[in-house]
Amino acid sequence: MRARVLIDNIARDGLISEWGLSIWIEYEGHKLLLDTGATGKFVENARALGVDLAQVELGVLSHAHYDHANGIEAFFRENERAPFFLRAGAQENCYGKKWIFRKYIGIQRGLMERYPQRFAPAEGKFALLPGAWLLPHSSSDLELIARRANLYVRRDGRLVPDDFSHEQSLVFETDGGLVVFNSCSHAGPDNILREVGEAFPGRHVRALVGGLHLCVLRDDEVRALAGRIREMQVEEIVTGHCTGQRAFGVLREELGEQVRQIYTGMELEF
Questions:
Q1: Is the Cα torsion angle 67, 72, 75, 77 positive or negative in sign?
Q2: Which pLDDT score is estimated for 98?
Q3: Phi/psi at 153 (nearest 5 deg)?
Q4: pLDDT averaged over consecutive 10-residue blocks of the chain (270 residues)?
Q5: With contact defined as beta carbons under 8 Å apart, do 118 and 69 qualify?
Q6: Nearest to 58 by CA among 113, 122, 151, 14
Q7: Intra-chain end-to-end CA distance of the chain, in Å
Q8: CA 141, CA 129: separation in Å to the nearest integer?
Q9: What are the φ and ψ backbone dihedral angles of 149, each rounded to 5 degrees?
Q10: Burial of 264 by CB count in 10 Å (0-12 exposed, 13-18 middle, 19+ buried)?
């Protein structure tokens, strides 16, 4: 399988960057798109890289935040047929909240109502393609993680800590092991890797790709996380977006070349 990063916080070779993530994936002859960044700018990068978005067969939304979802309408203009898979519980209800301040950070309001025929709900361990799966969270107490990260959802007229039921991992079976994409890993990368291990018992994880949302952790907490990842014997961590440069540096100190930096235009092969 091959993947190409269409947009990330960091860009090279004259490509566009933004706070967001979008990845083109080719797997067993199929073409997929994971997320669409915060705007339609990923479309410009796709053209510059020679990626034809009209060929995408399936889209996947990793979670219901604007920096991964708000380019979907631009994608629909480029591609008239591909369904976009999201968790069945995903809504336009995500907020960032700190003290008395709140900010809407969800999917562009009205988008799901305007394009009901283009969104497809995924429930449980969902077979997207032969060998490709969408996996929900099975970890408990995720609200504690959300509270620390100031991430909330509106339910029954009030804001409550997010349980990340709108977030999913995209897992591919390859000859070298499982390749796991989780664009922000809000539940914690170690929790996600454990969830994958429980869903695919006895299977080795070749790589974890995506943001790790470590910007809210102290350096000692990142070092402890690196130790847990090392124990899980994951071959490679390819990360960027919301990981944060400080935390990325700590991971590199602990895990060395096992960790690679995502950037716009990056090409991956597994």
A1: negative
A2: 87
A3: -130, 155
A4: 98 96 98 98 98 98 98 98 96 93 96 97 98 96 92 95 97 98 96 97 97 94 96 96 96 97 98
A5: no
A6: 122
A7: 5
A8: 31
A9: -85, 0
A10: buried
SS3 87: strand
The single-letter code of the amino acid at 192 is: I
| Residue with tokens 């454990």, as numbered in its chain | 194
Distance CA 46, CA 50 (A): 6
| Residue 145 structure tokens | 């993680």
Question: φ and ψ at 29, to 5 degrees?
Answer: 85, -5
Sheet with strand 58-60: strands edge to edge: 119-122, 84-87, 58-60, 30-34, 22-27, 2-7, 267-269
Q: Please give the DSSP secondary-structure letter assigned to residue 265.
A: T
Q: How far is CA 177 from the centre of its chain?
A: 19
- Other beta carbons within 10 Å of 188: 21
Contact 264, 49 (CB under 8 A): no
CA–CA dist 137, 165 (Å, integer):
7
What is the reported pLDDT for 141? 84
